[in-house]
Amino acid sequence: MKYTAIVDYGVGNLRSVSNAMAYIGQKTLITGDPEELERADAIILPGVGAFPDAADKLREKGLDKKLAAQAGRKPILGICLGMQLLFDQGKEGKPCKGLGLVCGCVERIQTKLKLPHIGWNRLSFLNDSPLFHGLDDGVCVYFVHSYCGLAADEKDVIARTSYGASIVAAVSHNGVYGCQFHPEKSGEVGLQILRNFGDLIQ
User: Fold this and answer.
1) pLDDT tens, 171-193?
2) HEC profile for the chain?
């Protein structure tokens, strides 16, 4: 049976992602082994915490180069901080190099509303994506974040949300996908997104 590797680099919500995938019948393997990422049929990069620490941990384990090598060869999904790491650079605390799989940078949300942005918010879909197949524009998903991605090319943005400002909620580039929100905590909508991601496996 084909399976998805969930990347374990010390800063992820691994069990909740794994449980959600199991619930929809998707086989997963939680792993910090770079070679397992090559053997897997798809990859999920979760993440909770600060961009610089997470980026350092990926590099220490050699996972950054392996993830870059798999981009375009198999579906990759970054979740929350995992999505932010897909970008070229993060500016949380200090400028820090990301994976460079989506052009752009990550900056603090420019809003007068209280940060972090926590709770349910609506998605506005842009640039049709298989990740949102079967979902209606305006569905709600769960967010927890103070920083957001700024895509260099608006064609890479597949969903936005609003929190006193327009925020990139999801991206897609060359078979690499990112969700700023947590699909594993977003009820049936989130499960459908994970099903759609699973359907991308060849």
Assistant:
1) 999 999 999 999 999 999 999 99
2) CCCEEEECCCCCCHHHHHHHHHHCCCCEEEECCHHHHHHCCEEEECCCCCHHHHHHHHHHCCHHHHHHHHECCECEEEECHHHHCCEEEECCCCCEECCCCEEEEEEECCCCCCCCEEEEEECEECCCCHHHCCCCCCCEEEEEECEEEEECCHHHEEEEEECCCEEEEEEEECCEEEECCCHHHCHHHHHHHHHHHHHCCC
CATH number of the domain where residue 176 is located: 3.40.50.880
96 included as an active-site residue = no
> Of the listed 80, 96, 105, 148, which one is catalytic?
80
> Which one of the listed residues 117, 145, 173, 182 is annotated catalytic?
182
Range of the domain at 53: 4-199
User: What's the structural domain count of the chain?
Assistant: 1
Catalytic residue among 92, 145, 148, 184: 184
- Asked if 105 is an active-site residue, the reply is no
Give the model confidence (pLDDT) of 158-171 as tens digits: 999 999 999 999 99
Annotated active-site residue 184? The verdict is yes
- Report residues of the chain scoring pLDDT below 50: none
- The pLDDT assigned to 10 comes to 87
pTM for this entry: 0.97
